């Protein structure tokens, strides 16, 4: 492939030069194509006459091809004459002495080969480009020690460090410790290169045919810690260590390093605040909370104080909705802090996500439905609030009504949003909520017709959920037109939505006890997985998803189960290898899945790649 590319580039120069010399373009174009064909087929005897001719016109471009053809045909004396001729034309090209040494090397004349290899180093000019050419020529012939000596001499002559060029050699020879220390030396002399160094290391860790990750990561971590101890005021090493720890999922250790970085750096808490957001996004809610508190300790006048305060409240909310064992006191404390923040910023739009979260806590976790209703109604009735925001409050109120079994009131609100946003995603969300309510109510044909309309929704998530709902109903009614088993399943889903987890499990278990002929087993596995997940029963969650993949690998929930397993291993069980396995399974086994873009992104992140 490289030969094809080089010959293609040479073609333009070749044609231009020959046109300039007065020859026919077509004639030389034909010659170029012919010599190209010979070289690709390794027919060097046939290529030589043409190469001799074109070399005289463009020696710098055709030298290497001509030299290689002479070596392949064992015309060593002619190759030596060619090198003499080339050096007269380009006396400062020390890399030509490497070719000369190689010429003797292939003839097993080690003494002469050594003489010319040494001469290549002695003849190095004060030109970084020629230094690189010479070193790369040594690399090509697997003379790695000579290549390193070239760079050592080149640094003396030019004062240029050749960091990345030397790194290439250390990578080629699997000398990981030297490679890592070279990058760390680069950061010491030029901290602004941290982005490039991170990319280089991530690429190295990502391309892992020999499982070098297990070698590289510990070495990198050890060498970074040594550097931090040796140069405590050099924050760039701390920054790189934080990056590495986050990539490895070691958030607790990363938090301590971020605090240390914050004390030494002059970024006014930016890195600390960004780390808070990274932890929260990656479901490390407890560490994120500690981190946000560190930001807030800086005082109310600090530029990130208010943002940290707001985001910390949302972080605590996300922790609660993903946890099963949350004390009443924790709920009350968070609720009071949310109300306080909303009251202090009641005229600001930044509180709207907080209002939605607070209403969820009031209704779903404290069962104070009237309070949730009045809170949402207050904002729905506000004239100055944009219609899109009001619609979000209405859809949250729909959930509050469903929690209370006020299904008719919920449907009426859905219809309002559908009417106001008929062709927009908010309208589609409202329509899907209405389909689910019909399903909960046992109106299966109506629910299916509503879901079928949404299969072409602009939101892939809504379209995917609508397709699932339609298929559940179709499969169940095909097995049992009375829908008796499906009615139990619909009630279990409603109980799950209402956070009545034990009752939901009992209802799901009763389906297998009461009905021997139904199609809902994979659906039951999937719903039980959700329940176990809310209870933080990770082994139960894992088993339910594995049941789906083991027994229903080609059915509706298979890609969902693979994705959920990957998330479970990544965020809850801290098994990076297993997480990567199931992200990869989505890419290989379910290429049409809704989860493919996110699975590809997460797989690359876990491999250590830099993903924007």
Descriptive terms for the model:
single chain; 612 residues; mainly alpha; Serine Threonine Protein Phosphatase 5, Tetratricopeptide repeat; 77% helix; 0% strand; elongated; disordered N terminus
* Number of helical regions: 33
Helix content: over 70%
Q: How many beta-strand runs?
A: 0
Distance between the termini: 30 Å
Question: Major β-sheet, in short?
Answer: none
Measured by DSSP, the beta-strand proportion falls in under 5%
Unreliable stretches covering 5 or more consecutive residues: 1-26, 207-212
- Broad structural category: mainly alpha
Computed Rg: 34 Å
Shape: elongated
What is the mean predicted local confidence, pLDDT? 88
Could you explain the architecture of this structure?
The structure is a single chain. The protein is mainly alpha-helical and 612 residues long. Among the domains are: 407-519, no CATH class; 528-612, Serine Threonine Protein Phosphatase 5, Tetratricopeptide repeat (Alpha Horseshoe). It is 77% helix and 0% strand. The chain has 33 helices and no strands. It is elongated.
């Amino acid at each position: 492939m490289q030969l094809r590319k080089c010959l293609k580039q040479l073609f333009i120069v070749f044609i231009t030069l020959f046109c300039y010399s007065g020859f026919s373009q077509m004639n030389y174009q034909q010659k170029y194509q012919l010599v190209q064909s010979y070289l690709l087929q390794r027919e060097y005897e046939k290529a030589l006459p043409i190469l001799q001719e074109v070399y005289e016109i463009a020696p710098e471009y055709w030298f290497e091809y001509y030299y290689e053809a002479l070596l392949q045909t064992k015309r060593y004396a002619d190759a030596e004459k060619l090198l003499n001729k080339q050096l007269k034309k380009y006396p400062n090209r020390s890399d030509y002495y490497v070719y000369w040494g190689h010429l003797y090397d292939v003839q097993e004349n080690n003494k002469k080969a050594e003489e010319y290899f040494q001469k290549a180093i002695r003849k190095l000019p004060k030109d970084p480009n020629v230094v690189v050419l010479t070193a790369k020529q040594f690399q090509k012939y697997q003379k790695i020690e000579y290549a390193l000596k070239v760079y050592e001499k080149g640094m003396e002559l030019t004062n240029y460090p050749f960091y990345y060029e030397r790194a290439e050699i250390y990578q080629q020879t699997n000398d990981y410790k030297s490679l890592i220390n070279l990058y760390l030396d680069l950061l010491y002399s030029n901290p602004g290169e941290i982005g490039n160094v991170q990319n280089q290391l991530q690429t190295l860790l990502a391309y892992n045919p020999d499982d070098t990750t297990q070698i590289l990561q510990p070495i990198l971590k050890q060498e970074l810690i040594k550097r931090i101890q040796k140069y405590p005021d050099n924050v760039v090493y701390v920054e790189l260590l934080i990056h590495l720890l986050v990539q490895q999922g070691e958030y607790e250790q990363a938090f301590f390093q971020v605090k240390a970085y914050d004390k030494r750096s002059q970024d006014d808490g930016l890195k600390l605040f960004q780390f808070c957001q990274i932890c929260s996004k990656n479901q490390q809610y407890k560490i994120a909370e500690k981190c946000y508190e560190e930001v807030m300790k800086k005082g109310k006048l600090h530029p990130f104080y208010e943002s940290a305060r707001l985001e910390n409240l949302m972080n605590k909310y996300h922790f609660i909705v993903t946890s099963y064992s949350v004390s009443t006191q924790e709920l009350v404390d968070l609720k009071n802090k949310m109300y306080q923040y909303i009251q202090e910023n009641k005229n600001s739009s930044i509180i709207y996500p907080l209002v939605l979260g607070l209403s969820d806590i009031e209704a779903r976790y404290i069962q104070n439905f009237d309070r949730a209703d009045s809170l949402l109604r207050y904002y729905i009735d506000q004239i100055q609030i944009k219609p899109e925001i009001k619609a979000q409050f209405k859809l949250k109120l729909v959930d509050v009504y469903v929690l209370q079994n006020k299904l008719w009131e919920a449907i009426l609100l859905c219809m309002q949003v559908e009417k106001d946003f008929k062709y927009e995603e908010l309208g589609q969300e409202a329509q899907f909520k209405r389909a689910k309510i019909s399903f909960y109510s046992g109106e299966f044909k109506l629910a299916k017709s509503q879901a079928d309309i949404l299969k072409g929704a602009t939101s892939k998530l809504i379209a995917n959920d609508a397709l699932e709902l339609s298929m559940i109903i179709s499969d169940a009614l095909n097995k049992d037109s009375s829908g008796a088993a499906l009615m139990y399943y619909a009630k279990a889903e409603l109980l799950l939505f209402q956070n009545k987890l034990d009752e939901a499990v009992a209802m799901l278990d009763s389906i297998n006890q009461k009905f021997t002929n139904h199609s809902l087993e994979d659906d039951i596995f999937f719903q039980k997985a959700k329940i176990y997940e809310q209870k933080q029963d990770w082994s139960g969650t894992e088993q339910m998803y594995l049941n789906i993949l083991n027994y229903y690998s080609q059915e509706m929930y298979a890609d969902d189960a693979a994705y959920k397993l990957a998330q479970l291993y990544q965020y809850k069980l801290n098994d990076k290898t297993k997480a990567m396995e199931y992200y990869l399974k989505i890419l290989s086994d379910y290429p049409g899945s809704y989860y493919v873009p996110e699975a590809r992104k997460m797989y690359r992140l876990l491999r250590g790649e830099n993903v924007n």
